[in-house]
Amino acid sequence: MSISTPEAEELAAFIVANLPVVAVPGVPEIRLHKAAPESGLGRRFGAGPAPYWAYHWAGGLALARFVLDRPEWVRGRRVLDLGAGGGLVGIAAALAGASEVRAAEIDPAGRAALRLNAALNGVAIEAPEGDPLDVPPPEVDLVLVGDLFYDAALAARVTDWLDLCLARGIEVLVGDPRRAPLPVDRLELLNEAPVQETAGAVQTGAVFAFRRS
């Protein structure tokens, strides 16, 4: 469903007023609006989708750091950030030299945060509405997937869609702390490093290449 300009403006105003701008742990080149104890997310979004976009997650942290440290993966390429949340991974790709960055995020509040965060970091990211898993992959060269393998049913949908990407010659990188639904038999480990999620817990975030079965 399309959201109106007043709704988008209200979401953006709430985020600016209630989510402070902070440097990302382990990725200090990037600053994002992120949740704080006083942000009031439960009151504002309690009846809607959980505001995952307002927090740091291990897979996205690992993937963003990897892209910035290994810019040859994205430089001059068209990139899709799948399940973009607040845009951390897509922003990293843009800063590392991607020729074009698209972000797929189904939560309207997440898209509002993403647009604000992209502007904060001086990059341009296209963030269309809709569920990307319902349509064929777009014309891109690389898909970046952070923290989407947290639910078995969703992981199956994502895996099927990523297979469509591979069939079209699109490369795929996955960032994840090895959650249970991760399709480990389809992944080649490229890097792992300690990362700190919003809750403060330090864990190992890994970056994988998604391969054909």
UniProtKB/TrEMBL annotation:
Stored Pfam families: PrmA
Listed Gene3D superfamilies: Vaccinia Virus protein VP39
Presence of keyword Cytoplasm: no
Assigned keywords, A-Z: Methyltransferase, Transferase
InterPro entries: Ribosomal_L11_MeTrfase_PrmA, SAM-dependent_MTases_sf
Keyword Methyltransferase among record annotations: yes
Example GO biological process: methylation
GO MF, one example: protein-lysine N-methyltransferase activity
Listed PANTHER family: ELECTRON TRANSFER FLAVOPROTEIN BETA SUBUNIT LYSINE METHYLTRANSFERASE
Official protein name in the record: Methyltransferase
Organism: Allosphingosinicella ginsenosidimutans
